[in-house]
Amino acid sequence: MESVNETANLKDMPCGKHSVRLLQTGETYVCSSEETLLQGMARMGRKGIPSGCLNGGCGVCKIAIRSGNIKKTGAMSRAHISEQDEAQGVVLACRVVPLSDVELDVMGCMKKTILCMQCGAAQAGEPSSIPK
């Protein structure tokens, strides 16, 4: 994974479209290098994906990058993302853009929402990939 410790100037970054995969659900979406992972995720049309302040302060959109390269676009609250977390790929989706295809795990409030949505689908008679 590329370092996320440097702040990017979006105007200086190469424009590209990248595939982003949510490992918990297997869903993928396309996200350009000109938008944050959270902005791209919002275009999926899913209802109930929580977002808060949209500027790195609330910690609601916490994710763990499992593969791929990202670039930090601004500060993230140290109350939610420590320097050690960030070095291990734990970031806020509202503050990073993809530089390549990315696989991520959703954490915190978002993880709970995604898992609840899967449980609801299973209760409605659709298969669920949640291990029991």
Tell me what the structure shows.
The chain is of the alpha+beta class and 132 residues long. The chain has one domain: Ubiquitin-like (UB roll) (Roll), CATH 3.10.20. The chain has helices spanning 37-42, 83-87, 108-123; strands spanning 17-22, 28-32, 62-67, 70-72, 90-92, 96-98, 102-106. A five-stranded mixed beta sheet has the order 2-1-7-3-5. Strands 4-6 form a two-stranded antiparallel sheet. Strand 1 (17-22) and strand 2 form a beta hairpin. It starts with 16 loop residues before the first strand and ends in a 9-residue tail after the last helix.
- Assigned CATH architecture: Roll
Over the alpha carbons, how many angstroms does the gyration radius reach? 15 Å
Biggest sheet statistics: 5 strands, mixed
Total number of β-strand segments?
A: 7
Share in β-strands: 15-25%
CATH uppermost class: Alpha Beta
The ordered H/E elements are: EEHEEHEEEH
Q: Uncertain runs with pLDDT below 50, 5 residues or more?
A: 1-13, 119-132
In the CATH hierarchy, the third-tier topology is known as Ubiquitin-like (UB roll)
Which structural class fits the helix and strand makeup?
alpha+beta
Mean pLDDT: 76
Q: Give the total of domains.
A: 1
